[in-house]
């Protein structure tokens, strides 16, 4: 087999010894590291989606392969969880910096007679590289079947998604370390990979769910709350997502997006948007700049769907809160003042993933004690009553209805406000939601009463 960088004297790809690749591997912090749930969840999901008995995530050095996640084996410590690089197939995706797929390992001329065949029981093998942000392949995610098999296209697409998710997690950790932000902000993007699923639709839904934080990280001096209200009916995948995380010191970022369409393509774009925005928000305080960079990334990756998004960066001040907000084809944010007045925030901007150049602008806003900021997806302003419900026809729950509902909540905290809106939506559509809905609220607590 020929490799672009040639081969070493021992017949292995010369790129394994490339100084730039080895530096990138060292910077990842993964060599000799112990298993983590965030990675184990993804390898278990890879095994379940493909029906294989073995799935593994490894990081490949010059002469050794270091195991990061091999869920079917008990952890034996760093000295045991490694092997000579030639004793497994893991170097193949690294050597080619691309997928390596074998349907009959014993007969394929690339792998016939390989020393890994018997110890690992390899009948068929499929793996994708783990790639750094600068394009260096430092490891691989693979699945092993004991019998030869013909891989389905959907299985390989799912494995590619999971390998990119691992790459994004590793790259995000490196980026956050460089900007001195806590590593735990990087982990919660992937900590929630769901139970083993058996078809591509369920896989995509699981990947979408894994992008929704189970609980928002507390923001000192503020109240925060979020709700995700799934559509009624089957588990068709949509692209609603939200996030809240710390960027630069003293600044926080809240994002919400809605990917057009449903299915696996929507899940792919959701993942791309989430990881890109997290990575870039640590470098730019301007939401318009971050959303513009996301648009560029979507075109570079040939994203199959477009999306709308709203992003805000904010920090607490002695007077309350100061922030910037940008809309990219998304419904305007709402601010509920302490006295119940509701105001729209944001200037309409271009949706993302359609045009190479977009028109986006930041709007500055301030909030005083008792004020609340609400971000939402269009399920909250396009809710339709169940057409099968008895009684007279009712109009759509639109933006005006949402504003009126929010105005009914002066004095309620962030969680109670999102609960009130969710109850109003349920009452309007009669328990049959036609679209998923995401809500995220940030409130400046009222000043304590004078003694």
What does this 3D model show about the protein?
With 451 residues, the chain is of the alpha+beta class. It has 2 domains: 160 residues, Beta-Lactamase; 230 residues, Phosphatase 2c, domain 1, CATH 3.60.40. Helix content is 29%, strand content 23%. It contains 11 helices and 16 strands. The strands form 3 sheets. Strands 3-2-1-6-5-4 form a 6-stranded antiparallel sheet. The protein has a 5-stranded antiparallel sheet with strand order 7-16-15-12-13. A 5-stranded antiparallel sheet has the order 8-9-10-11-14. The longest helix has 26 residues. It is elongated, with a radius of gyration of 24 Å. The chain starts with 18 loop residues before the first helix and ends in an 8-residue tail after the last strand. About 4% of the residues have low confidence.
Defining traits:
Phosphatase 2c, domain 1; 2 domains; alpha+beta; Beta-Lactamase; 16 strands; 451 residues
CATH topology grouping of the largest domain:
Phosphatase 2c, domain 1
Main sheet makeup = 6 strands, antiparallel
Order of strands, main sheet, comes to: 3-2-1-6-5-4
Number of domains: 2
CATH architecture group name of the largest domain:
4-Layer Sandwich
Q: Work out the radius of gyration.
A: 24 Å
| Number of helical regions | 11
Structural class: alpha+beta
How far is it from the N-terminal to the C-terminal residue, by CA?
80 Å
Q: Name the poorly predicted regions.
A: 181-187, 189-201
Estimated share of beta-strand residues: 15-25%
CATH class of the largest domain: Alpha Beta
